[in-house]
Specification:
seven-stranded mixed sheet; globular; four-stranded parallel sheet; binds pyridoxal-5'-phosphate; 461 residues; alpha/beta; 15 strands
Length: 461
Amino acid sequence: MSKNKIPYKTYLTEEELPKAWYNIRADMKTDHRPILNPGTLKPVTAEELAPVFCDELVKQELNDKDRFIEIPEEIRNFYKMYRPSPLVRAYCLEEALGTPAKIYYKYEGGNTSGSHKLNSAIAQAYYAKEQGLRGVTTETGAGQWGTAMSMACGYFGLDLKVFMVKVSAQQKPYRKAVMETYGAAVTPSPSDTTEIGRKILAKDPETGGSLGCAISEAVEAAVTTDGYRYVLGSVLNQVLLHQTVIGLEAKTAFEKLGEHPDIVIGCAGGGSNLGGLMGPFMAEKLAGKDAPYFLAVEPASCPTMTRGRFAYDFCDTGMVTPLAKMYTVGAQFIPSSSHAGGLRYHGMSPILSQLYHDGYIDEARSYNQTAVFEAATQFARVEGTLPAPESAHAIRAAIEEALKCKETGEAKTILFGLSGTGYFDMGAYMQYNDGSMTDNIPTDEDLERGFASLPNVPADI
Ligand SMILES: *Cc1c(COP(=O)(O)O)cnc(C)c1O
């Protein structure tokens, strides 16, 4: 077959876009353990979740029966403005590596929010609007999720309050400006607008804030403001569900090409882009058929799957959320402040955690951030696209797998998720470029301190 038979980019027509999301829980042999109320240690009910999340999203969160959940037309219409995302054949990277492997990536950075997060943001805003809510609250650290949510709320005419980790708001003024342009109200966190924020400020007026603290403020603002609910951009089942548009599109594109991936790779922070890319391919494995090798990649400085425990833990640092059974390094674990490469969440999606625990995800691997930025730079120079540091974890793994093929002579087909653009991460690139970026890997003692914060949940629950 001549090399150019497969195009550099494969798109789908509007008719070929997915009409339903794939709910992997319907096919999982062992479902993830239930989410628990931390007070009673009983599974949380829809009633308990109703003051926090939109009703329809609570249903999706708890749905373990329906394999496919229809994507409402209003959401599909919004998707059409920036989807399908391209499936790109990385010919130039293959050539640079001299590998017989075929490398493909699914690029999610081509919208203004710069990442895959918009796929779930628009769905969450839609259901809030449907319910007649006035607005939603959320937190943002690096800013991708807040930006995606501000675009989605701007589109549906919903109010949005974003609690943005104070140091991030100071370091990334342009992110804040994008959110404000789309109509969001951005409050640096901790703030004096919530009780928990005032408490934290009273203790430490100079604090730069943290994601855990911003979550606590956003949840408090949602439950104490009439007509508001809270939204979250990763980890939850509903977010993985919405993100399956990535994998469904990729699968259709591969079918059109008459190809199929042997390896599927994704970076994993809370697990949403990996879960979304991988899910539709995993369906075959769950049905006992031949399936690709699934590889999750995380930073060595926050090694949730590779060195964490599979245990019940809080989903936030403030310990106000329910408990989820997941791979975790402990809700109180704080990655080194020198960590610039994203993916710093302490836990992992309960769905992905269960799939990994049961061996359906074949491997989790971690890399130092300097190795990740080396791959990011190599990729940018040959493929043109500047990757998000998070996505570059997947690039690093794809390059290593392609180099293994070079040694063995195998022409494997590799698919990885390029979850976003690196435009808003130039601070981290500057550190890498001027040689000031360092690698900080937690010691076993550091991890033990995180594990010591795990709540006491009896083993038979
Ligand atoms: C948020 C983000 C991630 C990590 O989140 P997941 O839920 O693990 O996907 C990865 N890549 C990009 C570009 C992000 O913005």
